[in-house]
């Protein structure tokens, strides 16, 4: 089967050389051919939001409508959200690797890169965190647009009594490192804008890899309307992949005066008091320890196989 095109959404600023670490207030949409070099900005063509949506819908329309018992084989429309200290070219390299090794290799569906204005510098942790938080507004724009699109398709299927008009893709997210903070803020803002919708699952699977967020984010004793509860409401399932070997997240926790441990290093703070659609998984024995631990999930076949199972919706008792 032919490989799908490459897709990118960004709120980065722009220079003559390409995308930068500067933040802008609107989203930009791009695509490039499957055989193009995605790390070269000139390979990408900018589209309007409507043109971008049309191209995606044309691809999703080719997805099969499967029976319920084949649910795990349903194709995905996925976002990859990169982490801290990633220049645009770094993010593009990781995107194309995940697309090649996971989506193209297993015919999983379409992967979109969401790239936010990371400084691409190890000295830029605090500026990156501010940009990640502020990028929540723009990522919320994207989530709301996805919500409206799914809702339109569901209503069309109901009115016409034609299940073929329903959305043929599962919507999923892979977030890495501080990209999880972008997703956290984006989903929370989107939930508030949508008045915490109860009748639709926006994200089928959220895979949080080496998440640089508080490990008590999903505790059920948090105040009503906190980010974790809003995320759990919009997602069918949330899986956090963690390892205590991640020294990058150990340093991240040390930068926070309130001492919260990082979800991607410690796992959930109390597994008995989290929303029932949230779980964690220790990947210490699955990753290649010769690789950089913070991103080793993407570089290790065993952990990538686990990631595929999570995205496909394999029951957590049968993972691995």
Topology:
Blueprint (H helix, E strand, L loop, with lengths): L5 E10 L2 E15 L12 E3 L1 H12 L15 E6 L6 H19 L2 E7 L9 H10 L1 H25 L9 E7 L2 H15 L9 E7 L17 H8 E8 L4 H8 L8 H4 L11 E5 L13 H4 L1 H12 L8
Parallel strand pairs: 1-5, 4-5, 4-6, 6-7, 7-8, 8-9
Antiparallel strand pairs: 1-2, 2-3
Helix pairs in contact: 3-5, 4-5, 5-6
Report what the structure shows.
By secondary structure, the protein is of the alpha/beta class. It has a single domain, classed as Rossmann fold, CATH 3.40.50. 37% of the residues lie in helices and 21% in strands. It has 10 helices and 9 strands. It has helices at residues 49-60, 88-106, 125-134, 136-160, 179-193, 227-234, 247-254, 263-266, 296-299, 301-312; strands at 6-15, 18-32, 45-47, 76-81, 109-115, 170-176, 203-209, 235-242, 278-282. It has a 9-stranded mixed beta sheet, with helices on both faces. Helix 5 (179-193) crosses helix 6 (227-234). It is globular. Residues 156-161 have low confidence and may be disordered.
CATH topology category name: Rossmann fold
Roughly what fraction of the amino acids lie in strands?
Answer: 15-25%
Instruction: Round the mean pLDDT to the nearest integer and report it.
Output: 85
CATH class: Alpha Beta
Major sheet: 9 strands, mixed
Question: What labels describe this entry?
Answer:
single chain, 320 residues, alpha/beta, Rossmann fold, 9-stranded mixed sheet, 10 helices, 9 strands, globular
Question: What can be said about this structure in brief?
Answer:
A 9-stranded mixed β-sheet has the order 3-2-1-5-4-6-7-8-9, sandwiched between helices. The two termini are 27 Å apart.
